[in-house]
Design a protein that fits this description.
Chain A: It holds the Pfam family FBA_1. The complex is a heterodimer of chains A (about 400) and B (about 150). Chain A is mostly beta strands. Chain A is built from 7 helices and 23 strands. Chain A has a 4-stranded antiparallel sheet with strand order 3-2-1-23, with helices on one face. In chain A, a hairpin with a 2-residue loop joins strand 16 and strand 17 (about 285-290). Chain A is globular, with a radius of gyration of 21 Å. Chain B has helices at about 20-25, 25-35, 50-60, 65-75, 80-95, 100-110, 115-125, 130-140, and strands spanning about 5-10, 15-20, 40-45. In chain B, helix 5 (about 80-95) runs antiparallel to helix 6 (about 100-110). Chain B is elongated, with a radius of gyration of 19 Å. Classes of the chains: A mainly beta (about 400), B mainly alpha (about 150). Chains A and B meet through helix 1, helix 2 and helix 3 of A and helix 5, helix 6, helix 7 and helix 8 of B.
Chain lengths: ~400, ~150
């Protein structure tokens, strides 16, 4: 079959699950090159089922583990089967990546920034070694790229946030970083300045975008990295002007920041805000407000239209007796399956539940879900097409590319 | 009025007749017919007679459009041998019969998806073109990923 034309080989390979593709890369040199072909990448991406990537790190239990971490954890890909008659997560992960194997990840903390088209952006930090690095990783081809260090590293790491996305106009992948600094001008009082810089894959350097024009501050308590949807990254920020608008976006085409409509403000007595977070549910932006007593999920039906925010579901704490109520950690919506269930996991996922929109907690949790919850401390990166094949070669061609994490 | 018939010739010079209105499901044949009326024999130098017979059997199917998907799937399922499927996919590619090619490729993918590296090589008769040293270097590099 050596005369099998490339077109046919690509077509067949693009129908294979990720795990087999990794294997097939090693069949021969020709296939190795085919799997790197942009034609294959696009075809495979379009044919792959949706999946999740779960960052499993059992060792981080205490705050000091962040400073003296033992193990960066494992990335696991989980496929979502959401057919007419079957809705479940395949918890026997199609593949997993043990981050503790590459020597340069030892004893560091790995945090996910986001994922786009199957590429994952990871941030590595180790306070002990004063080390901060950003990686772009393709879990399918097992290729990694180390981004250059930022021009201005901030040691107060509570005050910088990242976002990872792709420009719909140019197809360029970008990492955006906003950071807050205190500057003393003319011997006066120190002033807070919020600046941004962007890294376009392939350019080899961070580019400053200058001060951020939108009036907001990074919220140390709600600090999480940007959620990419519709060409924008979304962050929850501090509402400086008391307008109850506390979402900010970055446009990956125009490279500008805008404030973004929040769900309508509701003053509810005897509810104490615990946590706010953003997620994607059925392709729509959604905001999760966790209170002492309940969890509210808002969904924005039409992206950017304030009036389209509506309350999708409210889950009262008393119905979730067997669920450890989320405290200060954010909740990440994993998926709304077509049979109406929504699944969610918590960062410290000792418990995980799926529930019906009409507020009845399922008493019999899908066994596969239970296995997942018992086994994994999870950190949901985002919804991610498992097929996950985007080849970096196209977008990044500089000396940092192919930085090998593993040197045996 | 009798329907117009075309003659296709396989790699091993066997001739096959097929009605024109069925043959033009192949975009390649349709274009040839448009260009020169395809009055003479259409040579298919890359398709052997066994495969061509299968293609003709497929083109001659009398299926309602809504049953077509199932039919194609069943058609390739019944010919579950990888070499046959690859020949079929190759012919469908040359003749530009999209549904048949999709189904054949899907079937091959299904068959090899749980294969090991060595089994894939064997099934598709691909020679490993790396030296054992190169092989080891790559294994070492990627070992953490398996």
């Amino acid at each position: 079959m050596e005369d099998l034309p490339a077109e046919l080989t690509i077509d067949i390979l693009s129908r294979l699950p990720v795990k087999t593709v990794i294997n097939c890369k090693h069949v021969c040199k020709k296939w190795w090159n085919l799997v790197s072909d942009i034609l294959f990448v696009n075809l495979h991406l379009s044919r792959s089922p949706t999946g999740l990537i779960i960052h499993h790190h059992l060792d981080i239990c205490m705050p000091w583990d962040l400073i003296f971490p033992n193990n960066p954890g494992t990335l696991k890909l989980v496929e979502i089967e959401d057919k007419v008659d079957r809705h479940r997560l395949h918890t026997d992960p199609p593949m997993s990546l043990d981050l503790s194997l590459p020597p340069n990840l030892h004893n560091t903390v790995i945090r996910h920034i986001g994922s786009v088209n199957g590429l994952i952006c990871l941030r590595q930090s180790s306070l002990k070694h004063d080390l901060y690095d950003t990686y772009i990783c393709n879990p399918v081809t097992r290729e990694y790229m180390l981004l250059p260090r930022q021009r201005s590293q901030t040691h107060n790491f509570l005050r910088d946030v990242y976002g990872f996305g792709v420009s719909s106009l140019t197809g360029e992948y970008k990492v955006i970083r906003t950071f807050q600094a205190e500057v003393v001008r003319n011997g006066g009082k120190p002033a807070r300045v919020l600046e941004a810089e962007v890294y376009t894959l392939g350019t080899g350097q961070w580019r400053s975008l200058g001060p951020v024009s939108v009036n907001y501050w990074l919220d140390a308590f709600h600090r999480f990295d940007g959620l990419f949807l519709n060409n924008h990254c979304h962050w929850i920020v501090l509402d400086v002007e008391n307008t109850y608008e506390n979402i900010c976006t970055f446009d990956f085409n125009k490279e500008t920041f805008q404030s973004f409509p929040s769900p309508p403000f509701e003053f509810v007595q005897q509810k104490r805000y615990k946590r706010q977070s953003l997620a994607i549910l059925k392709g729509c932006l959604c905001k999760l407000d966790t209170y002492d007593s309940e969890l509210t999920i808002w969904v924005m039906k039409e992206h950017g239209i304030k009036n389209s925010w509506h309350k999708e579901v409210v889950i009262r704490r008393e119905i979730c007796v067997d669920l450890k109520w989320p405290s200060y950690k954010p909740i990440h919506l994993i998926a709304g399956l077509k049979d109406g269930r929504a699944n969610y996991g918590r960062r410290r996922g000792e418990s995980m539940a799926d529930f019906l929109p009409h507020l009845r907690l399922r008493t019999s949790i899908d066994p596969s879900m239970e296995a997942l919850s018992a086994e994994l401390t999870m950190d949901i990166l985002s919804r991610l097409p498992v097929k996950t094949i985007i080849h970096c070669k196209r977008v990044c061609n500089h000396k940092y590319y192919y930085k090998k994490i593993c040197t045996t | 009025m009798s329907k117009k018939t075309l003659t296709l010739m396989s790699k091993d010079k066997q001739l096959f007749n097929i009605e024109e209105h069925l043959a033009v499901q192949s975009v390649t044949i349709r274009n040839m017919v448009k260009e020169d009326g395809a009055s003479s024999v259409i040579p298919l130098p890359r398709v052997d007679s066994e495969t061509l017979a299968l293609v003709i059997e497929y083109l001659n199917r009398q299926q309602a459009p809504e049953e077509d998907e199932d039919y194609v799937k069943k058609f390739v399922d019944e010919r579950g041998e990888i070499p046959t499927l690859l020949e079929l996919a190759q012919a469908a590619l040359d003749l530009d019969i999209k549904k048949l090619m999709d189904a054949a490729c899907m079937k091959v993918a299904d068959l090899i998806k749980d294969f090991t590296l060595e089994e894939v090589r064997e099934a598709l008769r691909i020679e490993n073109d790396r030296t054992p040293e190169e092989e080891k270097a790559i294994r070492d590099e990627f070992q953490w990923a398996f």
